[in-house]
Amino acid sequence: MTDGFDLLLTGAMAVTPAGVARADLGVRAGRIAAIGTLAGAKAERVMDLAGLTILPGVIDSQVHLREPGLEYKEDLATGTAAAALGGVTAVCEMPNTKPSTLTAEAIADKLARAHGRAWTDHAFFIGAAVENIPQLAALERLPGCAGVKVFMGSSTGSLLVDGEDALAGVLASGFRRVAVHCEDEARLKERFALVADGAEPEMHPEWRDARTAFLATERLLRLARAAGRRVHVLHVTTAEEMELLARNKDLATVEVTPQHLTLSAPDCYRRLGTLAQMNPPVRGEEHRQALWRAVEQGVVDVIGSDHAPHTREEKARPYPQSPSGMTGVQTLVPVMLDHVAAGRLSLERFVDLTSAGPARTYGMAGKGRIAVGYDADFTVVDLKARRKISHLWIASKCGWTPYDGMKVTGWPIATIIRGSVVMQDDELQGDPQGQPLRFGESLPRG
């Protein structure tokens, strides 16, 4: 159509850069073409969304989708289906697959695997390792590459970058913001004796204590400042780290997860056992409250789920042989909307943390806001819906969630990606049409 829209959304409240207000949205050729009062406009499809709220498409910038090599517990199709069912329109996937994502060939392989199977838009991190440091500056520019990911602790093989010289080399190679898992590997090894002979899961935050996280974050910031390199500190869990990061906002952006904002020790470990086990750990209430203060004070830039599924059988192993990680991409929106309903953060702040924040942090092109010319990515929610999260709702292959039985206020009703409705009323629509994300640093120079 040349005189109308492909899709017209009417009757809803919309969260735009101008605020939260009643607005119709017109979509043409996958992008937002008009915002305002569009009564009488022609469209191939009209969706009456009265009583609902349209958010910019939610972006989950930290997921582990396990393909290739670990498809028995998740793959690109099931993981992105879970994302779409949860109202998420785009994901950035981490490099700790088998084999690890260390080369241009590995990125190309993941993009090929996602083609025609991914329900959401997507990008893949390149893992930093000693052997690929000389290539990182070129690798981070590859189409579909979300950037560079560093594991300072809690990884195996060449993905573990725990030496100071190696980390300095990574930070000196390239210019895009580097995403970092901060735990001090030497301290982890030193303290492993606390649990080596077997322990209760509630010992997890004692073994991987707050000092372990702080030491790594302190070292990262020192080396990043020396290199003049921007960094993004993932899944921050401690009050001490937040105080340090607040003094380094010119250099560092900050992520927190819904798990660390919602669960607290020791209760979650007594209730959930190893299902609550993740790295860095869920900590005590004083740290959870410190994370919320950092959200309120603007220190936090992004909320990511750190979706990291394992099977129930794997999780049933005695601690500490049980693997760390839990599902999260499908529950990010309802769990955080419940916090909005409880008054812990505003709807606008939620949007900043889950749409504008990830797009701004990683330089995503055309994503993160409801604005003319941007991709027509929308997360349509019912802010008043009262629902209960259950294992049965989870589309991930592992089939469980730490939030089973949790009653929430706020629920994703539709997921729209580049003008195509991919989820409506808890059901996937059509076929997977996810495309690689684009990044400002890798766009053609004219």
From TrEMBL:
Its cofactor is Zn(2+). Its EC number is 3.5.2.3. It is an enzyme of class 3 (hydrolase). GO terms for cellular component: cytoplasm. InterPro entries: Amidohydro-rel, DHOase/Allantoinase_Hydrolase, Dihydroorotase_CS, Metal-dep_hydrolase_composite, Metal_Hydrolase. SUPFAM superfamilies: Composite domain of metallo-dependent hydrolases (SSF51338), Metallo-dependent hydrolases (SSF51556). Keywords: Hydrolase, Metal-binding. It holds the Pfam family Amidohydro_1. This is Dihydroorotase. It comes from mine drainage metagenome.
